[in-house]
Automatic annotation (TrEMBL):
Transmembrane segments: none
InterPro entries: Methyltransf_11, SAM-dependent_MTases_sf
Name of the protein: S-adenosyl-L-methionine-dependent methyltransferase
Keyword Transferase: yes
Domain Methyltransferase type, residue spans: 55-158
CDD domains: AdoMet_MTases
SUPFAM superfamilies noted in UniProt: S-adenosyl-L-methionine-dependent methyltransferases
Keyword line: Methyltransferase, Transferase
One of the record's GO molecular function terms: S-adenosylmethionine-dependent methyltransferase activity
Gene3D superfamilies: Vaccinia Virus protein VP39
Length: 216
């Protein structure tokens, strides 16, 4: 099924409205994800000496970028929400790494957006998507598009919900990686503690996984 401009409009509106309070509202969950990602850095296999180039797609306010900044040499963030990118820019000022955000879409109707045609947007060591894949209208197409941005041997890294309805199982995630050609040394790691979404007396709790695989 084709991705539609209407889908993008809805997502953009929702994320624009959440951007200014996102980090505060999800502070507990963000801290947990940061710790869980950093605990897996050695297993994922980042290049030594902080030389890795990271693409943080659907980067939002920069949760994944912040978590992985100590282990990479440069970061490119891309998002469809301009307000989220404004928050991303604020976070970038606080990081000790080159970190730049760009407005755009790699998974829509335009197979090869001119905005992202330069070498800056290719040959990444890591392409990461934090809690974004369950929002994508066509996750398989998204994975295939993102795989083209990786260098040979580069890794696709995703964090998402453990769910058949609004996320992925081990089997469906592995198929996603295989269909994109990034399933070499595939790992599907379920996070032990649930992710807290929001604050208040009864926040939502969600099981999440961290998965990665290499481009052959």
């Amino acid at each position: 099924m084709a991705h539609t401009a209407h889908d993008d409009h809805i997502h953009t509106h929702n994320f624009n409205s959440q951007a200014h309070t996102y980090n505060e509202r999800h502070a507990i969950g963000i801290q947990m994800l940061t710790e869980q990602l950093r605990a897996r850095v050695d297993s994922i296999g980042f290049p030594a000496n902080k030389t890795a180039r990271l693409l943080d797609y659907a980067c939002g306010t920069g949760v994944v970028s912040h978590a992985l900044a100590p282990f990479v040499g440069s970061i490119v963030g891309i998002d469809i929400s301009e307000n989220m990118l404004s928050e991303y820019a604020k976070r970038a000022e606080q990081e000790d790494v080159e970190m730049r955000g760009y407005h755009g879409n790699l998974t829509g109707d335009d197979e090869a957006p001119a905005t992202f045609a330069s070498d800056l947007f290719f040959n990444f060591d890591i392409v990461a998507v934090g809690l974004g894949f369950h929002h994508f209208h066509n996750p398989t197409l998204a994975a295939q598009r993102l795989a083209t941005r990786l260098k040979t041997g580069g890794k696709l890294l995703i964090i998402d919900n453990v769910s058949e309805d609004n996320g992925f199982s081990h089997e469906s995630a592995e198929k996603l990686f295989k269909d994109a050609g990034v399933a070499q040394d595939f790992v599907f790691s379920v996070v032990d503690q649930e992710l807290q979404i929001g604050r208040g007396p009864t926040p939502m709790m969600q099981r999440v996984f961290i998965a990665w695989g290499s481009k052959a």
